[in-house]
Amino acid sequence: MTTPTIPLCVPSLGDDERRLLGECLDSTFVSSVGPFVTRFESEFAARVGSQNAVACASGTAAIHLALRAIGVGRGDLVLCQDFTFIASVTPAVHLGAEVGFIDSEPRSWNLDPALTAQALDDCVRTGRRPKALIAVHILGQPADLGPIVDACARHGVALIEDAAEALGAGWTTAYPHPACAGRQVGTVGAVGCFSFNGNKVITTGGGGMAVTADAKLAETMKHLSTQAKLPGLGFVHDQVGYNYRLPNLNAALGLAQLGRLDGFLARKHAIAQRYRAVATRLGWTWQPQLAGSVSSDWLASCLVGADSGRTRDRILAHLTAHGIQARPLWLPLARQPCLAGSRRWGGAVGDRLAAEGLSLPCSTGISEVELERVCAALESHETT
Predict the structure, then answer these.
(1) How many whole angstroms separate alpha carbon 185 and alpha carbon 377?
(2) Phi-psi region of 267 (alpha: psi -120 to 50; beta: other; left: phi over 0)
(3) Structural domains of the chain, with CATH
(4) Which residue pairs from 184-187 have beta carbons closer than 8 angstroms and sit at least 24 positions apart in sequence?
(5) pTM score over 0.90
(6) How confident is the model over 281-327, as pLDDT tens digits?
């Protein structure tokens, strides 16, 4: 009998999800109007500690709405973390902005604060003050955001947090910057953006959320997400908007998932701890955790090391042969063919992450037997 493949990261769905989905179906409100949308927004905002939340069709849509709401348009400059999934920056490109990319730091794999300050200084000095900076909390690890907040404030640059992978992550009260200490990711910048894709910490099937302390920004994003239609029975639109509102059916699923968030996070932490021990024995580097921060441990990832005796791709092939789904980390954005020619500050760290990075199965429903199977395969790769 063929051994089942262990998937990389799939959602955990149970009785709560079935119950709320059933209620939504019975109500017949399955599209973008219905009580589950407003409930999901309200409970999500409370969970992360934000005043306002706008549910939308995807994490990418959330970033698009955030950039449009703060006024990003054609010819503006938007800076973004270089090492991230491409959806972090494509909304800026769709809006006609010029984009530039800043390297990560080894301490967290997130934006390098010193390099970020240098990039902002460089741009302002040459008369190109960026309209926005997109900071990503990569793979669930909060960025060292305090110095970045200061650099953005110094130059009047709006800070957008891409927290797509980091729901439940944040900074402890020991973190040495008052803007972040004791807060959750997504609540520090002008807007925080989350994703609920099927592989994220919680899922709505597909969907996203934009959170902000600014009621006016929230109103603008919600208006744009509903085709910028003015109130009333008539079909009058004061702007060209988007069909970005999250359907009620998806919100029902998200509401059930949100109620299980603490359990999901606890399991993610336990899985990461198990893998970290194996990575240490093999001489690999687990994603570091920044002092004064708590990761969501979304995607269990490590660097296998250039001198490990095996390339990352050979390790991937070994895992695949054992029925284990693993993935490389992303190619930096400045190296993507569709973004070639964009300005780049640094790059060596992101290039290393791309060359050596490996993500391992981390579904919250992974069994202990499956987890042991992955660990055994990792341990055995050097003997093949």
Answers:
(1) 34
(2) alpha
(3) 15-258 (3.40.640.10), 261-383 (3.90.1150.10)
(4) 184/48, 184/49, 185/48, 185/137, 185/142, 185/161, 186/48, 186/50, 186/161, 186/211, 187/48, 187/49, 187/50, 187/211, 187/213
(5) yes
(6) 999 999 999 999 999 999 999 999 876 546 899 999 999 999 999 99
